[in-house]
Design brief:
By secondary structure, the chain is mostly helical. Helices cover 78% and strands 0% of the residues. It is built from 5 helices and no strands. Helix 2 runs antiparallel to helix 3 and helix 2 crosses helix 5. It starts with a helix and ends in a 15-residue tail after the last helix.
């Protein structure tokens, strides 16, 4: 599978979870906790494969996108921090929905930038064969990638 297609599929999966969360009732604490746990796992794994495999390859293929990669890594840092807080926060806590809402807004912004601005440049610079190769690497890495935001090494490690 093409690496960009794989990342977009991850984006779609998380967006579906966000919509489920937004539709859950105000006092649907158990349902919201379950959805949040899925979001935490999905985003943690996605962030890991993106930073460890995709970003370095994209930066090499399209050096002009360096600033986007650096900004994305910082956005990931914020998301992982929020995920680690959500992981230990009771769904009935008055801050839970607010924290999840801010997370959703941040991720949606990040996804929009990637898909509309950055992915087209990377696709052009890499070509189909390289993207397919990266997609296979990322799919394989997903199987062993961390799903706990507290154990994800930073992009600099």
């Amino acid at each position: 599978m093409d690496g960009i297609v794989l990342l977009k599929d991850d984006h779609k999966t998380v967006e579906k979870l966000f919509k489920q969360f937004e539709k859950a009732g105000e006092n649907a604490h158990a349902e919201k906790r379950k959805i949040a746990n899925q979001v935490i796992e999905e985003l943690t794994t996605h962030t890991f494969i993106e930073e460890k495999i995709f970003y370095p390859a994209a930066r090499e293929a399209a050096p002009d996108t360096k600033d986007h990669v650096l900004e994305s890594v910082e956005e990931h840092h914020v998301v992982l921090w929020m995920l680690s807080e959500l992981k230990s926060l009771d769904a009935a806590d008055e801050r839970f929905d607010a924290k999840m809402t801010v997370l959703i807004e941040n991720v949606r912004h990040h996804v929009e930038e990637e898909e509309k601005e950055w992915f087209p440049e990377v696709r052009k610079a890499m070509g189909r064969n390289r993207l397919t190769e990266l997609g296979e690497q990322m799919e394989k890495a997903k199987k062993t990638a961390p799903s706990d935001p507290l154990v994800v090494p930073s992009a600099n490690e």
